[in-house]
Amino acid sequence: MAEAPTKPSVGDIWRWLEDAPDPEIPVLSVVDLGIVRAVEWRGETLIVTVTPTYSACPATSVIALDVEAMLRRRGIADVKIETRLVPPWTTDWISEKGREKLRAYGIAPPEGAVCAGAAKAAGARIACPRCGSTNTEEISRFGSTPCKASWRCKDCLEPFDYFKSF
Amino acid sequence: MSDAALEEFALRMGDNCLILGQRVSAWCGYAPALEEDIAMANVALDLIGQAKLWLALAGALEGKGRDADALAFLRDARAFRNCLLVEQPNGDYGQTLMRQFLFDAWHVPMLEGLAASREERVAAIAAKTAKEAAYHRDRSADLVIRLGDGGEESRRRMQTALDLLWPFAGELLAADETEARLAGEGVIPDLADIAKKWTAFVEPALEEATLVPPKDAPVRKGGKQGLHTEALGYVLAEMQWLQRAYPGATW
Ligand SMILES: [Zn+2]
């Protein structure tokens, strides 16, 4: 068994995590999504603390497995993924870079204050990720995954996913 | 604080979410419009995720090594602690929506109150799930209003659903001994206060929907103590058969 000469720094690990994709929206990394809350060494054990997006997000357990596998490939044998509920995840934690990536991928990033019905309160102007028009309307408050709602652009007439503010 | 009372309460919260989630999930592939089908699947998924958090807590408090799966799949009807409302059959779409509306109107203030619990494990689950419940309530209230204040047929169906389900709402709003004790200890909110918030939300919504609650309807209760209607047995038979027939089966 090969012995790692030195432990990778916490900074290195954060950089690696920036390349770990979210399984449902692979253009986003788990860091962009804001679900990695802490990275720390506890003795020889690396503890990565993650928080679920939605209580039932099916991606959460896949993310934990993916992160663990990636870190093992990088030579860290002793990895522990811990889950933390508090403080609850919010779309405010999606990074600026993450929002740009979402837009480029064709998903409108979350807009406006985080509260229930924020998107419904017609005040929220959701820009079409294809043509940029804000002449858009909600088709359904729910979408293909728990984090998305279905919207439509009234200018270019394309439907699109909106990463709902939550 | 007594762990037994808290365990009992966590079971009630978890079982409400689990049984309603199981009921709602039955619409997947059958809802009257694609958007509604997706909404139903998402609401069901949220509720089952929430159930998992509460049942995991209940299992940990019990301390006999039962996890959320064991509690969901291997208990008999008498051991379930959900309120009678959530086990009522889906009926037509109006009935399903009315059941959701009456439940969501309780679930939101309950979780918001629980987020301030002195028991931090309870507060954590409540804070995590309150936003999801609020999202559900926005939708169910919106649809109850649109269908109640809709065509003749939709109004008739919504009123029938309200008449049928109204008697089951009271169980959510009145504390039994366990809940009164936990409220006294600052672990859960006072249910009288939740009832006020429930009424303050439900009454104006029903009025806007042009629907009238039945007068002097009896309160149907017993679920919190494990005394269920016949309906629960059918839900459990469908939900549990695989783990009962093939114990320990995994994907
Ligand atoms: Zn457009």
Automatic annotation (TrEMBL), chain A:
Instruction: Name its species.
Output: Amphiplicatus metriothermophilus
Q: What is this protein called?
A: Ring-1,2-phenylacetyl-CoA epoxidase subunit PaaD
Q: Which ranges carry the MIP18 family-like domain? A: 12-72
Give every PaaD zinc beta ribbon domain span. 121-164
Q: Per its UniProt record, what NCBIfam families does this chain match?
A: PA_CoA_Oxy4 (TIGR02159)
Xref: InterPro entries = Fe-S_Maturation_MIP18, FSCA_dom_sf, MIP18-like, PaaD-like, Zn_ribbon_PaaD
Under the heading Pfam families, the entry gives: FeS_assembly_P, Zn_ribbon_PaaD
The residue ranges crossing the membrane are: none
From TrEMBL, chain B:
* Residues in coiled coil: none
What GO cellular-component annotations does this UniProt entry give? cytosol
Q: Would you kindly state one Gene Ontology biological process term found in this protein's UniProt entry?
A: phenylacetate catabolic process
Read off the SUPFAM superfamilies from this record.
Ferritin-like
Name the chain's protein: Ring-1,2-phenylacetyl-CoA epoxidase subunit PaaC
Organism, per UniProt?
A: Amphiplicatus metriothermophilus
